[in-house]
Amino acid sequence: MSGFVLEWQRQSDRHTYTVAWQCGDGQRTLLEASHVAKADMDGEPWPTNPPLQQVHHVNEKLTLAVGMAGKNHWSLSIEVSANCIIFDAACRVHAPVQLGTVYDAIEPSFRWNSDGLDLVARDGSNLFRLKSDTNSWAAVGSHLLLHVPADTSESLPTTIRWKYSIQSTPCAAG
Asked: Domain containing 87 — which CATH number?
């Protein structure tokens, strides 16, 4: 049987995860949620992904997680099915911030296509597709960056939400 597998690891006071593909010939790790901090608008360290400090596995298909960075609160739900993983993230912000998600491609025989929407094999076949309605993806080397436009023109604090999925293509599901 083939399908997605989500694996959690603890790094210091945060939880992070990898996305793997289970198939007949074993399991291949595809993506790792980057945990390297970048600088925010004021030059302060800022997480590249929701800084998850508490993780609750509701069942083998659904995980809920929450965390904090500065005055901001984060939440993430991840729903896993055989051919799709759905990510639903939100951040309660108190000041203008840069939000998004960054993944590192782990499998050396894979690369992101130019628009960052397909993870492709060395032979050029599409294996996995990223879907998101409101965000922009960019492939930079082995990194995949999801930029979330954060309209903070509203009164603060406000909650900013982004949702995306990783889906297998017929090549991967076969």
From this structure: 2.70.98.50
